[in-house]
From TrEMBL:
Single GO biological process annotation from the record: proteolysis
Short name of one Pfam family: PDZ_6
Localization, UniProt: Membrane
Organism: Micromonospora echinofusca
Name of this protein: RIP metalloprotease RseP
């Protein structure tokens, strides 16, 4: 029930975001004097509507987004009443049209930034000094966090009664103990702990030297068995290895909570990192298409493959089911930021395509004036329709791939 609630809540959050996106277009258009005739949440048959002034507001039957109708978005719009010609969008200065067309993405960015600021002062943002790479993790002191059990297979899931108990717990080790040696081999960092354990076999007895509250001590335990890939090849073939049943307690906190003022700078820094990560993720999209197809045809789903709204909603459901509300809101932030960036790509029918054409017209008019030639006028959108259809087709196929993968072989962050 909690999972279903999370799915519904996240889908609703996306719907609200997209509706606010369209509201951004509408409000800025109205502010500049453009005529907006319709603003609807959803698509398909109208469930309910009312008219206020010159705009009809309402709700459609298919809750998959929303739209607003601005009169004369292009010079080729053939449904513009002659009386509305002076207020047609294409007649307004390019800077005004740019603001109107970018207002949707700006709304997504605003939602993401506001949510991040709230997270920064409540739950905290990721610590930029926290070890994130494998090399940084292995250099950390071998301060341990006990696991309740040893999961025999190479997976992340909750312990069950069938799983063997953690050997470290059986040896009376505690969270925060720092291991200094195993079977006489000195342990200076977490990487050496892993290497030393891999040199042993499941069932071997390990003599463990450790420090607790500044006092050295020793204990012993029989190592359990789990499955892991080689340390130098995380994607290599898994094999049985010895397990102590411990994790790492990093020397730095994973998150930092800020005050209202300090959260502004931290939010800006995190947003900058998110922009870089979004750019890198978008560059990888073409090469991830084969991985999506492989996931659909039965291979293991690559966690780095793109997800659809369906997949994001499923992850939101998992987050709520596991009481991971911070993850829920971070998913909301990431999705809004990605939609904001994606929508600004200079391709029709995206908002970025309309913005690119508006500035192309402005630059071309400026250039023609400088060389003494007549202004060529507006771009003929009808001539761009074949390219627009290609973009729509590619986008549709990609969306279908991601939705199918998210249904038949979804990415999961928790064991269910």
């Amino acid at each position: 029930m909690a999972y279903l609630l999370g799915v519904v809540l996240f889908a609703l959050a996306i719907l609200v975001s997209v509706s606010l996106h369209e509201a951004g277009h509408m409000l800025t258009a109205k502010a500049f004097g453009m005529k907006v005739t319709r603003y609807f949440v959803g698509f398909g048959p109208t469930l309910w509507s009312f008219k206020r002034g010159e705009t009809e507001y309402g709700v459609k039957g298919i809750p998959l987004g929303g739209f607003c109708k601005i009169v004369g978005m292009t010079p080729q719009d053939d449904d513009v009443d002659p009386a509305d010609e002076p207020r047609a969008m294409w007649r307004f200065p390019v800077w005004k049209r740019t603001i109107v067309m970018s207002a949707g993405s700006i709304t997504h960015f605003a939602l993401a930034v506001i949510a991040l600021w709230i997270i920064a002062i409540s739950a905290g943002l990721p610590n930029p000094q926290f070890p994130s790479t494998e090399a940084e993790i292995r250099k950390e002191p071998a301060v341990i966090a006990l696991s309740k059990c040893v999961v025999p297979e190479n997976t992340l899931r909750e312990c069950t009664t069938a799983d063997p108990a953690s050997p470290a717990a059986q040896a009376q080790l505690r969270d925060g103990d720092r291991i200094t040696a195993i079977n006489g081999t000195p342990i200076d960092d977490y990487g050496q702990l892993l290497t030393t354990l891999r040199a042993l076999k499941p069932g071997d007895t390990a003599q463990i030297a450790y420090v607790r509250d500044g006092q050295p001590a020793t204990t012993s335990t029989v190592l359990a068995q789990t499955q892991r890939p080689p340390l130098d090849d995380p994607k290599g073939q898994v094999a049985p290895v010895a397990a102590l049943g411990v994790g790492l307690v990093p020397s730095t906190p994973t998150r930092i909570t800020y005050g209202p003022v300090g959260a502004v700078g931290a939010t800006a820094d995190f947003t900058g990192d998110m922009a870089v990560n979004t750019y890198e993720a978008m560059k990888r999209i073409p090469q991830k298409v084969p991985a999506l197809w492989a996931a659909i045809t039965g291979e293991e789903r690559d966690i780095d493959t793109p997800i659809s709204v369906v997949g994001a909603s499923r992850l939101g459901g998992e987050a709520v089911e596991n009481d991971a509300w911070l993850l829920f809101f971070m998913l909301f932030v990431s999705l809004n930021f990605f939609i904001g960036v994606f929508n600004l790509l200079p391709l029709l029918p995206l908002d970025g395509g309309h913005i690119a054409i508006a500035w192309f017209e402005r630059a071309r008019s400026w250039l023609y004036a400088r060389i003494g030639r007549a202004d060529p006028g507006r771009v003929d959108y009808l001539k761009l329709m074949p390219l627009t259809y290609v973009v729509i087709l590619i986008g549709g196929v990609f969306t279908l791939l991601t939705i199918t993968a998210d249904v038949v072989n979804p990415i999961t962050l928790f064991s269910r």
